[in-house]
Amino acid sequence: MKDSSSVAAMTTVSLQCLDPKCGAQYPVRDVRSECACGNLLDVRYEWSDFDAEAVKQVWKTRAMSLDPRDRSGVWRFRELIPFLPPEARVVTLREGNTPLLEAPHAADYAGLDLLAFKHQGFNPTGSFKDNGMTTGVSQAAALDKHVVACVSTGNTSASMAAYAAYGGLQAVIFIPAGQIASGKLAQALEYGALTIQVQANFDVTWKLVFHMVEEAGVYLLNSVNPFRVEGQKTIVVEMMEQLAWEAPDWIVLPGGNLGNSSAFGKGLREMKQLGLIARLPRLAVIQAEGSAPLYRLLQRAAAEGRSPWEIGLEPVASPQTLATAIRIGAPVSWKKALRELEATRGVCEAVSEQEIADAKAVIGLCGIGCEPASAATLAGIRKLVAANVIRKSDRVVAVLTGNLLKDPSYTLSYHEGTLALPREGPFDSAQGRQPAAIEPRFGNRPIAVPPDPEAIRRLLARHPAR
Ligand code: F0G
Fold this sequence. Notes:
There is one protein chain. The protein is of the alpha/beta class. The protein has a domain at about 100-125 and about 225-410: Rossmann fold (3-Layer(aba) Sandwich). The chain has helices at about 5, 50-60, 70, 105-110, 130-140, 155-165, 180-190, 200-215, 225-240, 260-275, 295-305, 310, 335-345, 355-365, 370-385, 410-415, 455-460, and strands at about 10-15, 25, 40-50, 100, 115-120, 145-150, 170-175, 195-200, 220, 250-255, 280-290, 345-350, 395-400. Helix 7 (about 180-190) links the parallel strand 7 and strand 8 (about 195-200). It has a 6-stranded mixed β-sheet, sandwiched between helices. It has a 4-stranded parallel β-sheet with strand order 8-7-6-9, with helices on both faces. A 3-stranded antiparallel β-sheet has the order 2-1-3. The protein starts with a helix and ends with a helix. It is globular and about 75 Å long. Ligand F0G binds near residues 259, 260 and 374.
């Protein structure tokens, strides 16, 4: 069996400005999340002698190894993320390794023949952020950083807190007060993060602390950090391996700060360039209607017949959605995401609160379950199938980004019929008016019963075995 040194002999690594007109490059050990011109940076590799078939074999063999890096669904693919020096410590909680689950009931709901969910909620802290946090925290350790920070709608902070604690670093998190799901806050506290609740939304908090954190010499682990993106791109690498390297027609994911969309596109382009896959799937990014700046930009560009680059992203000043993970009005990675949508002939769709809630319940009824933001995928697919953008026979993989248990109060309120729309929320497009509450179309209320055998017998008789 060939080892990694013979399947990808030489790689050079640098940081490069995302704007091809600037093209500035920096050494990979530079601590910076922006180019001097203000744009974000990509980790850029030049591979030579990359033998795609041999690499696939090496990855397969590693799946049976006990080396912690090989037990990780990120580092097992390390030929695609070769930015650490060979002697560097890898901080891994054995992230990745998430299943691809067939979901016929959800396919039916969306109007598709086949649909599979790649469930990132199976990660150690219950979200896809773990894929990027293992690489981000490992880079922090390689740079001798002892304190790491992020601004977060919840999952990034939970994940960073865990990886920092496991790696022996201190975590500092900034979260919008009262706007993150309870499961995520509980995780951050339990993992020992210094937890700062700012009385503002995500966008305001980000603007406030971004430069301050860097000036304080604290290592920033938001998705502007290009090493986070490197880990997240392995989600699509693992997905392609699970599909025997046959790319699906579509990969669908929710969009918030747009780091993950950027990561997926980069991973797909690199896999195509290296001969690991023969063609690129199309990306579909789904946003919540009340927090949909990328969707709005693309709609406007189409209506005006202009380039979205020329128009530029107009932030949503007061973003609203009950899917708090994606309640973001000024996504930091919009340029990277737009680049990837263009590269993959991708699309962006927006879905209402009612559509997200129903889709989430349908995913639950598949025995799969997810947090609200993740369910935007199924809601979006349903809309795109109805609009004939996705065809019934297309092969579609939707990425569920977070675990059902992240946001228990949303789920309970839905089933009890008390899930209320955000106060300044968007109009519900399905209704054309603003209803007071989400209608629990797939609600499943608990039934109270006295400790009376007759009453219980009557109930059982009313609910015969399926
Ligand atoms: N789904 C979930 C469950 C998320 O937590 C996020 C982002 C997204 C989707 C959107 O991903 O930002 O890469 O477009 N959560 C971030 C956080 C913002 O702070 O946890 P994105």
